[in-house]
Amino acid sequence: MLSLLLMNCDEEEETDTSNKFTVTEALIDTGLPVVLIETVTQKRIFSKEEYVDASMTIKYKGDTLHHNAIQIRGRGNATWFNYPKKPFKIKLYEKADLLGMGAEKDWVALANYGDKTLMRTAFALKLSERMNFPWTPKYRFVEVFFNGEYIGNYNLTEHIEQGKNRINVPSRGYIIERDDYYREEPVWFESAVRRYGWSFKNPDTDDITEQEVEYIRKYIDDFETALASSSFSDPDKGFKQYIDMYSFARWFVFQQILANIDTNFYLLKDDTGDNSKLTMGPVWDFEWTTGIGWYEGARPRPADYWVLNGGGFYFDRMLQDADFKALVKSVWAEYKSTATEMLDYFEVLRQELYESQKLNFQRWDILDQRIHVGGIPLGSFDKEVDCDIQFFKNHITWLETAFNEL
Q1: Which residues fall within 8 angstroms of residue 299, CB to CB, at 6 or more apart?
Q2: Which of 36, 60, 215, 316 sits a CA distance of 20 to 30 A from 252?
Q3: Which residues on adjacent β-strands are paired with residue 190?
Q4: Per-residue pLDDT tens for 322-373?
Q5: In a 3-state reduction of DSSP, which class is residue 22?
Q6: Mind listing the pLDDT tens digit for each residue in 295-308?
Q7: Among the residues of 153-292, which ranges form H helices?
Q8: Cα atoms in the 13 Å half-sphere on the side-chain side of 201
Q9: Contact 22, 5 (CB under 8 A)
Q10: Torsion, Cα of 255, 260, 264, 270 (10° steps)
């Protein structure tokens, strides 16, 4: 059994380390940056709520960057509680530009444990850039050591937050998130019509006011009420007065291209002014995209996967509106060549990750195991990537017909 230096808060005993895969930092030669994290007194990470004091060193192409005082904790939901390879939230005491991604304090290390290609997040973020989303989190693949132990390939990624170098909303603007874990957040609300749960990423939950919570809750309720009404298509009385239509259409097309099983939703609103509308984005959470799926038996994931249509997140209703449907078709026409061109990016990422994946899957020997929704184990990194490529080709071909038949 592999050594688990990172444990859930309900674990009490050390895990057996007799068959631990070990590699030293000096032997890493994958072409990727190396991140070394050392906690004070070698303390393990038990929680995704409480930070642990630590230091971090980043080595890349002969340069060494030391951060002598950082804080680190667990992050994520299912990825934190269900997987032995854990994701982290990293907080610097001073803003710093990590590997050319811009100076900020808050960073995320994504483990991608269930993604045997290791590349679905990177692939999706490149698609977001090419589809011209206003802000796309930057990332770098890195090799991570925790208290001297190699724990695998990670995505070191920008944290979703308001800021000059991140999401461009005012400090009192709104960034809200919808997912199934909203009750675990400090401040949340449920919408009145759809009963969707929302939590706040901005304003900061330490100083958000009751008036601000009530304002955004009412705005969401008014939007949902208009969307559910018989006059939902009316340009003055219906849902269109509340949202930036193009941002919703682009987000919808983006998720279709990736065939994302587990979509994550962020909404932005600049201020409380009458001219401000809800904007959809940024995009996040891509571990269950492209070839991954809940399929059983010796068959690939079917290409005809239509995200969030029929009982879905607002879009089932909005697609009944002729204007929105036409806009979705227009966005697909705008970016379908981009989607096709993304096929080449699989090979770019395969090459970047090739040496790293060898070490990662020695550390985490799962290529012959089914991991949650990961589908049929294919036994090798190359076969997993080839499966994603074939699925993507089939899916893009199917999407052309599907969008035309909307």
Answers
A1: none
A2: 215
A3: 197
A4: 999 999 999 999 999 999 999 999 999 999 999 999 999 999 999 999 887 7
A5: coil
A6: 655 566 788 888 87
A7: 210-228, 245-258
A8: 22
A9: no
A10: -10
